[in-house]
Amino acid sequence: MKTAQDPRHQKRRKTVKELFAASFTKQPIKNEMVAKIMAERKKIDKEIAASAPTWPIAKLNKIDLAILRLAVYELRQKVTPPKVIIDEAVELAKEYGGDNSPSFINGVLGTIYNNGQSK
Q1: Which of 10, 31, 93, 103 could lock onto 97 through a cystine, CB 3.0 to 4.6 A?
Q2: Which of 104, 111, 103, 99 lies closest to 75 in space, CA to CA?
Q3: pLDDT tens digit string along 41-98?
Q4: Interatomic CA distance for residues 20 and 12, integer angstroms
Q5: Which residues contact 80 (CB under 8 A, 6 or more apart)?
Q6: How far apart are CA 9 and CA 12, in angstroms?
Q7: pTM of this prediction?
Q8: Within 13 Å and on the Cβ side, how many CA atoms surround 6?
């Protein structure tokens, strides 16, 4: 059963925090996953933009963008089941995002998953 103390959840929380900080100013990257996400950022952002066409990347809430970047990266890796990744992203959105963040993130990731865009 998933809990807030699950080491995988803790790792995702740290990754989201570091991605969030990096969206404001250049940060030294301590987390290997963050480095990989930032290296693929343009491709990941294209997938996000295609799945949320009414929300340009520049207008997205920074924490939502950080959560989406992590989730899309994980979907592309095809290691963790997609439904687990989406569920984790929604949980992170509930924890860190605004009132509409969980449903927005669920919708964007659902679109990406259903369209098979994450390659």
Answers
A1: 93
A2: 111
A3: 999 999 999 999 898 999 999 999 999 999 999 999 999 999 999 999 999 999 999 9
A4: 12
A5: 74
A6: 5
A7: 0.92
A8: 10
d(CA 90, CA 111): 14
The pLDDT of residue 29: 85
Residues 70 and 20: beta-carbon distance below 8 Å: no
What six digits make up the tokens of 4? 């807030």
* Nearby residues of 103 by Cβ (< 8 Å), 6 or more positions away: none
Tell me how far apart the alpha carbons of residues 42 and 79 are, in angstroms, rounded to a whole number.
21
Query: Would you state the structure tokens that stand for residue 98, as one six-digit string?
Result: 């605004």
24 exposure class (CB count in 10 Å sphere: 0-12, 13-18, 19+): exposed
Which residue shows structure tokens 């995702």? 12
Phi, psi of 68 (to 5 degrees): -65, -40
Distance CA 94, CA 101 (A): 7
